[in-house]
Structures are given as C-alpha cells and as structure tokens.
Inverse folding.
C-alpha cells in the first residue's frame, strides 16, 4: 500500500512537473519562475553579501541552522578542472521539521529534499541570483505530513530566508 502511494505521488509529481513546465511564466526582468524552482535577482552586488544575508536570515529563524555553505564552482574545478561561474549552496535544516517528516517510514522518501538548499550564483551578465525550491508548491503536490510541513512552516520560513529587503 505504501509503495503504491509513493508511486502514485511520483506519477502525480512527474505529470504536474511536465504539464506545469509548459505553463511556466517569466517573472520580473532578471527573474525566472518555474513551478518548483524560483530564481530572483539579488539586491546585493556581491556573492558574499548575498550569502551572508541569507545565512543571517536562516539563523534568525527559530529552530533553523545553516548546515553548510558549499562553493560548488570550486568543487567542480578541483574535481574536473573545469571552471564555471561562482555557485554557492547554502544548506539549512530545522531538525524539528525534519524529525516530524522522517519519523514515519512512509514519508522517509522526502529525505531527498533535505536539507533545504538555497543557491547563490553569478550569471554571465555579472549579476548575482538566488535560486530555491518552491517549498509551498512541493507541499501542495505531496499532501499529508510532508505537505503540511513543507507547504506550511517550511514555506513560511523560506520566504523569510529569502527576504533580502529586511
């Protein structure tokens, strides 16, 4: 039963992704909006300012911690010799939310979305962008305990993480 529920969720997710991707709308200039992924232009001129602001926002939210800040471009260069424009991944976790999801065997598949990752990167236009998963949309898609947590508390906190006007 549980594996058929998971298969059904995956089928629904795949169909929704395929259908929605054709309906994706462009955001404001310098921003892209896809059904499950959000990209926006940083108000900061540098990667360091943007990463620092997001880290402070995460750490200001009750229960959240920054697990890691990973310079993906440097890892790619080190392992492959290929240079790409700067990309930094910020991994954030709220252990209370994670535990609530992971305690049930039927929801442990959601661990593939953990920790919450925010990406800060430069494009060839020289500007800094922020990419993130749309936790609210993910929550709506999955429903149940995963949906309640992802679409509620996680999505609300994520909005605060990414509010760089505060």
């Amino acid at each position: 039963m549980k594996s058929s529920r998971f298969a059904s969720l995956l089928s629904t997710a795949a169909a929704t992704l395929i259908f929605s991707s054709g309906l994706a709308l462009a955001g404001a200039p310098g921003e892209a909006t896809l059904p499950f992924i959000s990209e926006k232009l940083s108000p900061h001129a540098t990667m360091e300012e943007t990463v620092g602001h997001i880290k402070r926002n995460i750490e200001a939210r009750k229960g959240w911690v920054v697990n890691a800040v990973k310079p993906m471009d440097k890892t790619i260069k080190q392992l492959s010799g290929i240079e790409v424009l700067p990309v930094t991944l910020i991994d954030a976790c709220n252990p209370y939310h994670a535990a609530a999801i992971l305690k049930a065997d039927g929801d442990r598949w959601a661990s593939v979305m953990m920790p919450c990752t925010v990406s800060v990167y430069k494009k060839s236009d020289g500007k800094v962008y922020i990419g993130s998963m749309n936790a609210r949309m993910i929550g709506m898609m999955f429903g149940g305990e995963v949906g309640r947590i992802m679409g509620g508390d996680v999505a609300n906190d994520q909005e605060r993480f990414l509010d760089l006007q505060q």
